[in-house]
Each structure stands twice: as C-alpha cells, then as structure tokens.
Design a protein that fits this description.
The complex is a heterodimer of chains A (256) and B (290). Chain A is of the alpha/beta class and 256 residues long. In chain A, 38% of the residues lie in helices and 25% in strands. Chain A contains eleven helices and ten strands. Chain A has a six-stranded mixed β-sheet with strand order 6-7-8-3-9-10, with helices on both faces. In chain A, strands 2-1-4-5 form a four-stranded antiparallel β-sheet, with helices on one face. In chain A, helix 3 packs parallel to helix 6. Chain B contains eleven helices and two strands. The chains are: A alpha/beta (256), B mainly alpha (290). Chains A and B meet through helix 2 and helix 3 of A and helix 6 and helix 7 of B. Bound molecules: adenosine-5'-diphosphate and magnesium ion (MG).
Chain lengths: 256, 290
C-alpha cells in the first residue's frame, strides 16, 4: 500500500528558534510508525505541525495526496487525523463520558457515538466505572486511556500519539501499547507514535525514524533499528560486552 | 416578622438580578479569560432595546423581550468578533482597558439614541400583589425569582446536556485541546458573548420596574462584579449565590443600619471575603491550565 502521509523538508520555528530543521519522512497506510528522539529533539513540534497547531515556514505535509500544512487544527481533525497530545490535555471538569463525546464533535452520525463509547470501554474496561467522574480526578494511566479514547471517537484514519508512556508504570505502558497494536490491527488505523521510550516503541512499530535536533538522522524498519548498535547504545541503554575495544573509537554516533 | 420576610423576598429578588449579571461576567471569563467590565452596560443597553420594542414600537411585552434578547445576542457576538477577539493574547491589562472603553462608548451611544431621560418599561405584573398570611409580595419581585430559577435551569440543561453546551465547556477548560477536537473555538467564544448579552438583557428588563431605565443602569455591573468575586469568579452557581448575598446585604443594611451604610456594606463584605478566603466562597477547585 502507498503512503498515507508524506512529510517533506518541514522547518518549524518558535519565534526565532528553529525547532524542526528540514525533516522528511513517510507514513505508509496502515502501519505503526515511530519517531524516536531525546527530550527537546522536536518530536512534539513535528506532531503540532502535522495537526495544524503550528504552521511550518517551509516544506509540506501531504496527506492522501493533499497539502495540509497550512490548515487549522479543526480542519485537520475533520480529514481523519487525531492527536493524542503530550500530557493528555483532557477537559478536567467534564466527565469521562463527556470527554469522549467531545472527541466525536466533528462527526455527523450522532447515533453511532453511543456505540463507539461502548467500544472504548471495551478497550479500557477500567474507564467504564469512571464514566461519570470528572476526567481531572483520574490517575495518570486512566487519563492517558481517556486521551486515546477521545482521539478514537473521531474515527480517525491516522492517530498521532505523543509520548503515551510518559510517567506510567511499565505494567500500564504494556497495557496501553497492547491496545495501540489492537487498534492498528483491528481497524487498520495508521499510527504515528512519538516516544523517548525506544524499547517499547520499536517492539510495536513497523518502521522507525530517529530525530535529533530537528533532523531525521536514521530511518529503518522497527526490527532493524532494534538491532543497530547506535540505537542500542544511545536509546536502549544496552552496552554490548566483548566489543569494548571497538566501542572506544566508535563512541561518536555513526550518523554524524 | 412579616416585614422581615417581605424585605427578604425583595432582597432576594434584587440579588437574583445581580446574580444574573454576575453570571455573564463568569461565562465570559471562563470561556476567554477576559473580564468584561462592560457587562453592566450590556444590561443597560438590553433594557433600552427592550424599551424600544415594547414602548416605542408598541409590541407585546414577551415579543419585545424576545426580540431584545436576539438583538443583544447578535450585538454581543459581533462585539467579540469585531473588537474583543483582536486583543486575545495581549496582557490582561489591555483587555481591562478595552472592555472599560467599550462600556463608556455604549453609555454615550445610549445617551445619544435614547436621551438622558429616565424611562419606564411597563410589565404585565406591575400592579398585582399576592398575600401570604401577613406578607404582601408584589408580582414584580416574584416574577424576578421565577425568571431566575427558570433561566438557571435552562442554562444548566444547556451546558450539561446539549452538544454545543458541552463543547463550550470544553473550549473554556482547554482551548487548544478543544480546537484539536474540531470545535470551532472562536465561534464558541462569540457564542458565549452572545449568551451573556442575552442574559444581561433579561437582567435589564427585570431591573426596569425596580430601578427605571437610564444610562446609569450599568452601575449594577459594579455590584455584580462584587458578586462574581465573592462567588469565586469561575463558578456559575457561585455567581448567583454571590449576587443573592449582595442583594440581601444591600437591602438589610439600608433598613437596619445607619444612613450611608447601604452603599458600602456589600463592598465591606467583599473585602472581608477576599481577606478570609481569597478564592471566593465557591472558588473553583483546581486551577485551570492556560
Ligand atoms: N513554546 C516553545 N517556545 C520556544 N521554544 C520551544 C517551545 N516548545 C519547544 N521549544 C523548543 O523546540 C525544541 C523542540 O521541542 P519539542 O518539540 O517539545 O521536543 P520534544 O517533544 O522532542 O521533547 C526544543 O529545543 C525546545 O526547547
Ligand atoms: Mg515532547
């Protein structure tokens, strides 16, 4: 299958600060694509640029063959791109159920909304009993579930996930990533997953990109990236024993 | 005792009006972080517009009221779209100056259009009174209580159960997230201004039989502002309760305290409340993220 989205040479600024310095990557239809990078690499900025919160000064984002880089976020979500923002960004005083309903705001088929809420509760059973609670009172993991559920309510073709594992226990991370894989398998929803936690992300991703200081410095399949020495050392924290002599002069990352 | 009850109902009624105006403050503040110091002037303008429809055009009272609400809602919405929206994101100080300026312009414009005379708006309840034991209650005051209760219920239902109401709440709790959900946040803000202008119109019309209509009617905004602050400036029930508190204090201090206390009693209470609990009596739990 072809690419659902193609990002070409985008440059995005915060005032005078250039946060994205000409990044390009492809998101194939139906795949899980991960973008890995350290804190401050520009991962969030890339997702903000795709979802229309920020406009790039140069470059293009084409989605289903259509350029969307100048569109506002409310238009972009209408095209089938939903963002699960960094830090959840729920509506804290609305109930869980109302948060989910607001996620369906762009949809016309109001009758199907109720059954979709049921489906979300099936993915995240612990939310069912919290349905009437204000979202701000939930635990971090439950809030992340609401944020993912809220994005799903728009019935997106593509979901942008910004560090869903941040601040969660390994057990919760596992649970949430299982759901992400399920959503991808069952509905064929394309997923762009931004993470610092390279280990979990690469295990589920079909393809990965590594972002440093606003540039894509490496691209490969998820499995291949898991095997690369640099990635293992700098993103997975695994130091291969027995190649110490080699490692000494290889200290610099090979892509530099 | 009878006299006390009568005063209590009157104070309650006036307090309800303060509460309705305060509710306008709170709606706009929660939605857009703008304190609208022209809220009192919206009340004044709403009353004048209703006066024009009912007295000058001779329309039926209810038709005139409905038309005035629609007219003012459009006016409020346009005010946001054309003027207020441009300064969103500027320092809080400039929004204060802007809304104070808008209030002054509205007062002058009203003086030009309707002149300096005091007008009265005849209502269907003018003369009627009800007797409960020894207590005589005028229909005017009762109508104020009933209207406030009804309006409270309608607004509650709107925000709680309607799609647009929920979206308005969402937009006021997390603007960026709302935008990402496809909610047209700017249109929602204008909608809140329209709603708050319509509520101000009702307040103005309710106030007309008590205060008469002139260009200084907007002074009610000051009392309502105090009510909103007491209520925690973010809570809708808090605003109404704050209004009722101020209305009762106003009335009883006028009757039972020495001359002159009436004008300052509510502000003394305001200061005490602010010193004792700076978040207001019904301060919103949890701070909103900007
Ligand atoms: N609001 C902002 N104003 C100015 N600079 C910012 C802002 N947000 C992020 N940046 C800068 O842009 C770069 C990329 O940030 P970000 O996309 O948030 O990184 P990541 O999500 O990968 O941690 C960082 O160097 C950061 O300092
Ligand atoms: Mg980030």
């Amino acid at each position: 299958m072809g690419n659902l989205m193609e990002v070409r040479n985008i440059e995005t600024y915060y005032g005078p600060t250039m946060a994205i310095r000409g990044a390009s990557f492809d998101v194939p239809q139906g795949e899980i694509v991960t973008i890995l990078g350290a804190n401050g690499a520009g991962k969030t900025t890339i997702l903000k640029t795709i979802s229309g919160i920020m406009d790039p000064q140069k470059g293009s984002v084409s989605y289903q063959g259509r350029e969307i880089q100048k569109m506002d976020p409310d238009r972009v979500v209408g095209l089938g791109i939903s963002l699960v923002p960094e830090g959840r960004e729920l509506f804290p005083f609305l109930s869980v159920r109302d948060n989910l309903k607001v996620g369906a705001y762009t949809r016309r088929d109001h009758a199907a909304v109720a059954s979709d809420i049921e489906r979300i509760f099936e993915y995240f059973p612990s939310l069912r009993e919290r349905a009437g609670r204000p979202a701000g009172m939930l635990s971090g993991g439950e809030q992340q579930m609401v944020a993912i559920g809220r994005a799903l309510m728009a019935r997106p073709k593509m979901i942008l996930l910004d560090e869903p594992s941040l601040g969660l226990s390994p057990k919760l991370v596992k649970e949430i990533f299982e759901i992400i894989v399920r959503i991808n398998r069952e509905n064929g929803t394309t997923i762009v997953l931004v993470e610092q936690n390279a280990n979990v992300a690469l295990q589920v991703a079909h393809r990965g990109y590594i972002l440093e200081l606003g540039r894509i410095v490496m691209a490969d399949t998820g499995a291949a990236l898991l095997q690369k020495d640099d990635v293992r050392e700098f993103y997975l924290g695994i130091k291969d024993q027995g190649v110490r002599g080699v490692r000494r002069w290889k200290k610099r990352k090979t892509w530099r | 005792m009878a006299e006390f009850l009568q005063l209590f109902v009157n104070g309650l009624a006036v307090g309800c009006i303060y509460g309705l105006v305060a509710l306008g403050f709170v709606l706009i503040y929660k939605a857009g972080e703008v304190v609208n110091f022209a809220q009192g002037e919206l009340v004044m303008l709403g009353a004048f517009v209703a006066f024009t429809f009912v007295v000058q055009f001779g329309l039926n009272y209810w038709v005139g009221l409905a038309l005035a609400m629609v007219t003012m809602a459009i006016f409020g919405g346009l005010l946001d779209m054309i003027v207020v929206r441009r300064i969103i994101g500027q320092p809080q100080f400039s929004t204060v100056m802007l809304t104070i300026g808008i209030g002054v312009v509205m007062r002058s414009a009203a003086a030009m259009v309707w002149g300096p005379e005091t007008r009265s708006l005849p209502t269907p309840f003018d003369a009627a009174t009800f007797r409960f034991g020894g207590v005589v209650l005028s229909a005017v005051y009762l109508s104020i209580l009933a209207t406030t209760a009804l309006l409270g219920l309608i607004l509650f239902g709107f925000f709680r159960f309607s799609r647009v109401g929920t979206a308005m709440q969402a937009a006021s709790q997390n603007q960026l997230a709302a935008y990402c959900m496809g909610i047209p946040v700017k249109r929602m803000l204008s909608g809140v201004w329209a709603l708050s202008a319509a509520v101000a119109t009702i307040a103005g019309v309710l106030l007309a039989p008590i205060n008469l209509i002139d260009t200084n009617l907007g002074a009610v905004g000051l009392k309502a502002f105090a009510a909103a602050v007491i209520g925690g400036f973010g809570s809708i029930p808090g605003a109404v309760l704050g209004g009722i508190l101020i209305g009762l204090i106003d009335l009883f201090s006028g009757v039972y305290l020495p001359q002159g206390f009436k004008d300052i009693a509510s502000y003394i209470v305001l200061l005490v409340v602010l010193v004792v609990c700076p978040q207001g009596l019904f301060g919103a739990v949890g701070r909103k993220k900007v």
